[in-house]
Amino acid sequence: MSVHLLTLGELGTEGISELLSLTDRFVEVGRRPIPRVPALRGRTVATLFFEESTRTRLAFETAAKRLSADVLNFSAASSSLAKGESLRDTFETVQAMGIHAAVVRHRSAGVPAQIARWADDGVSILNGGDGWHAHPTQGLQDAYTLWRHFTPMADGQPGAEAADEPTLAGLRVGIVGDIVHSRVARSDIEAYTALGASIVLVAPPTLLPAQPRDWIDCWLPADAAKRVEISHRLDDVLDELDVVGLLRCQRERMADGLIGSVPEYVARYGLTAERAQRLRPDAVITHPGPMNRGIEIAGAVFEDLAASRVLVTQQVSHGVAARMAVLFRLIGSGTSLPHADGPPGTAPSEAELTGGGGV
Amino acid sequence: MAEQQLSPAGGMLVLAGGEIVERTGRRHADITVLDGRIASVDPPGTSRNGSAHVIDATGCVIASGLVDLFSRLGEPGNEEAETVATATAAAALGGFTALLAQPDTDPPLDRLGQLAELRRNASGGYCAVIAAATITADRAGERLSPMAELADAGVRWFTDVGPLADTGLLRRALQYAEPLGGTVSVRPATAHLGGTAAMAEGAVSARMGLAGEPATSEELAAGAAVGVARLTGGRLHLDRISAARTVELVRAAKAEGIDVTASVAAEHLLFIDADADGYDTLMRAEPPYRTALDREALIAGINDRTIDAVVSGHSPVPPQAKDLPFDEAPPGVAALETCAALVLGHPGIGVEAALEALAWRPAELASATHLGGGAIEPGQPANLVAIDLARPWTLAERGSVSMARNTPHRRREMSVMVTATVVAGHLAVADGAPCSTAGTVAALAAGNTR
Questions:
Q1: Which among B5, B105, B144, B169 is least buried, having the fewest CB atoms inside 10 angstroms?
Q2: Domain ranges (residues) in chain A
Q3: Taking CB atoms and an 8 Å cutoff, what residues of chain B touch A113?
């Protein structure tokens, strides 16, 4: 059992499935007139954002407040990091305020893992995105979005049926773009493969790790690694895909000399109008945001497909429920995350999910 | 930690009952030390003298003092992490009788004034300190330092403690240093191939989301340096190599007759990139740890003498500096107290190969056989170490004399202990603990610093 959430890989298929099933419950809470429950009343969640982020911080804050937790905000801009205080000093100061969980976001990979080693017993660390390494709650919201797109809740009700296990089995997902620098890609790969999807990573070699096959084979469990392929040409795989997972293409990569130019990137890896025509009729598009219209996806394609095929707003809305699930499991009555090797956690009691948490 | 009385200055000291290990072979003998020199080497049990201070070295290996070709001593500029006094005390405790102090201090050692300051500082040390100077003025990589003046003052080792990006400058340095008897040392790395990355490039760095330095970065820079050494005939040292292909390159260069030597840091014989998987900043190394195959090649290189020296790589950093993100934390470990124990206890390295790389060969490279690594014969300076190859200890229990705490070995069970160190005839370490009084420590090092 783990008291932290650093990557999705450490949860295993069971753990990821359990969090997605729990996400169902909180999606349902989100639909209520007063979308607030008392589950984390008296608990304090700190958001330690050493790197700016609007979306992730808002999603975590909203999730914590809907669970009736108190929220402490820390951002590097207002901190004393510039005065020579170490990462550890900063964290220990916040921890001394009396917190139960800290969401840590940092531009350097591994900072949440480091902070988890300094955390007192009873303080859970949630990775809110670290460098190129991992963004596990994004992976959960993306996996949840795909699961519930392809397997909708029966009658709009949360998964009451035993057969309604989270799965992406049979889906072929393309992850397209700047994979080497993407924590979202890494967490999506962990989540999707754990749930049975097959994946094709589509990027020029300069936007993939140096030996991509070694990376995949050393990282993922063998049965998951088998389901990951690598392609350098979107056109070769486009018509196999059920999901086109676009990644943000950052213009500074061009300055780094990793791609020749934006137009040639668009011509080879962009979801252009021509390529949109070739999509399978039921294929959908995801993007972690913020989206560069005209680069990853043509503006017109986005407009044409937005209503039915682009799942970006669903991803964001599910992001709140997924983070509620994680917070609930880590610092609510469930107490800890199910680990790959551990027994399943307990389900939330009805009392925790009913009754208003106050306004 | 218990402190013991230093042997009376000038008094007679006997190392009794040990097995002397030298290049020429092994023999059981008692060594009598008087007035800073080896007075006699006698059959076991024949030298006991009522007035001598006798160290019982039964069951120990006795070797000439160890010589470290890479330590950072902290002064000047990093006194928060280490001082010359604490570094030399740690060195003696680790079996070293001489250290080559790296010149990447603040300010760097690039002129006579700083050389004099180091020698003043080192005069109070527990072991000899050999000065190295920078290749380039202000260590800026642009123009040569006053190498000839520094050589006249006794400096024989020139290094910018890292890569030298400008191959033309390296060529001039090798040309210029050659008639001065100087060695030019570079750590091979190619800036444009990730030469400053926090990790080796590979499956582990990709999973961890960290930029990596491929082994090719080191191989290409080493190849360029060897090429320039061939061109100039200068003396080149490749500092702290880490990759299998670099070992191969050094082997080929030596076979060709090029005047090149190489060292490896002790930690690289233990750790690989996967050991950094938890983002423990103590596992951030310079150069980065590589694969198990690279580690095997380094060990093989020590055993076949392709790699001349194992260095401690001692790099003290203050504790808060290791509490930074992995890719911002300074690399390196505090290694002087554990280096010899780890190498001599390494399952893949024999005692003779370890002593070759820790003492005999580095002493030759630093022109310092009078300070360590020399012959154990009557009349020679008495720089000696007694090593118990089967005495377990941990750093956590014994305590540390280095100010630096950036070691991953605090709780590692060591199998080999340096039990005694004799520096210029004085007992600096006995029974695995330092002997110290300020006056005599100063005295022991006074005539001992070059």
A1: B5
A2: 9-135+314-353, 138-312
A3: 278-279
